[in-house]
Amino acid sequence: MAHDSTQYIIIGAGLFGTAAAWRLAQSGKDVIILERSIPATESGSSHGSARIFRYPYMNQPTTSLVKDARSQWNELEAITGKRLITPSGCLDTGSVRNPELLASILSFEGIEHELLDADAAKQRWPQLNFPGPVLWHPEAGVINAGETVAAMNNLAIQAGAHLRCGWEVESVARQGAGYRVTSTTGNIVEGEQVIVASGGWLPSLLGNLQLPQGFLERMPEIQVRQENAYHFHYRDTSDWGETPLGENTSWPCFISKEPEFQGYGLPGGGDAGFRGQKVAEYNGGRVIGHAGNQDGVVDAANRQRVIDFVKSSCPGLIPEPYAETTCIFTNIPDDRMIIDRAEGITIVSACSGQGAKFAP
Ligand SMILES: Cc1cc2nc3c(=O)[nH]c(=O)nc-3n(C[C@H](O)[C@H](O)[C@H](O)COP(=O)(O)OP(=O)(O)OC[C@H]3O[C@@H](n4cnc5c(N)ncnc54)[C@H](O)[C@@H]3O)c2cc1C
């Protein structure tokens, strides 16, 4: 059986494990990343070309955190020479989304935006219908999640990190001043510190990490869903196709939250052949306990709800999905994320289905 040792062991090569690996390796630390599959695996949360990068949150500190994240994205894009966020702008609407409150938070943070009534918004974006006031902020964009994982993974490896694929962690046990990590096949890696970035698999791993009981008891309840997402063709074919800048479409991202339906849409990019908008119901998938329970089967009732939403709210889309997928979505209460540490074990879980924007 293989037996390695290092300073930092990172479990998981999604957006968060590779971000941690990049930063640690860049600062001269010895790092081994252990990944049960491959980086940005299709069965995790960080694959594909489309996640929304947007600023407004219902609370000011999180909006401020997005600003911090943007400067790290700028650094990552400058180092790699790749554009990882394609500008698109984003529209926020619906009484639950509360565009007026979001506008006041963007004003406080000095982020460019406009608040429009539904008629004015309809004139500018005839491809959408709006239930009420609309917040527009042009600095939003579409994150290419898969490319970002690849970029951070490459930077980590260039800085000396090692990646082990097909290495599924079964347990973490204390050993002397550090930790001993054992795989499901009996391989061992020893390290001084462990960073657990296992996404939707966290609930099934938590009990095997030898964490202090008090820490485990304070851990928020983690809800893992098998979310569904669909791609709908743009009616206007001039929106199809990739331009040299990658700005393939005039479509913005949008988030629409009404009590009866909370949905979002964004240019699907390469995942959708640059021909359509990715649309999904927020928290519309079934709760599955942990990511190991996913079956990848799209929920027919959810598909119909999203089609109905597209019919009523997105007249510029053909209301018949031409591609669909499932994806692992994790949530803890109040749309928060977990970054916490007990002794030498750090748990990093970019929960709440909105963590991609914070990765770097
Ligand atoms: C449909 C969908 C839409 C989203 N939309 C947005 C959005 O618009 N904007 C936004 O900012 N965010 C969005 N997100 C959220 C964002 O994508 C996630 O927060 C982020 O990808 C989580 O990354 P992660 O590294 O924590 O998890 P993951 O990417 O799941 O990575 C975890 C990794 O750990 C590995 N692993 C697990 N267990 C083990 C083990 N025992 N041993 C070894 N390896 C293990 C897994 O194989 C996996 O590669 C969305 C997510 C989904 C699913």
* CATH architecture assignment of the domain at 1-54 and 140-221 and 335-354: 3-Layer(bba) Sandwich
CATH superfamily of the domain at 1-54 and 140-221 and 335-354: FAD/NAD(P)-binding domain
Total count of helical runs of at least 4 residues = 8
Radius of gyration: 21 Å
Bound molecules: flavin-adenine dinucleotide
Main sheet makeup? 9 strands, mixed
CATH topology of the domain at 1-54 and 140-221 and 335-354: FAD/NAD(P)-binding domain
Percentage of helical residues?
10-25%
Say how many strands there are.
20
Topology:
Blueprint: E1 3-11, H1 15-26, E2 31-35, E3 51-53, H2 60-80, E4 85-87, E5 90-93, H3 99-109, E6 114-116, H4 118-124, E7 134-137, E8 141-143, H5 145-158, E9 162-165, E10 169-175, E11 178-183, E12 188-196, H6 202-205, H7 213-218, E13 223-233, E14 253-258, E15 261-267, E16 276-281, E17 286-287, H8 300-313, E18 323-331, E19 338-342, E20 345-349
Parallel strand pairs: 1-2, 1-12, 2-9, 5-14, 12-20
Antiparallel strand pairs: 3-8, 4-8, 5-7, 6-7, 10-11, 11-12, 13-16, 13-17, 13-18, 14-15, 15-16, 19-20
Helix pairs in contact: 1-5
Bound molecules: flavin-adenine dinucleotide.
Residues 11-17, 34-37, 41, 44-46, 51-52, 145, 168-169, 197-201, 205, 227, 229, 280, 327-329, 349-350, 353-357 line the site of flavin-adenine dinucleotide (FAD).
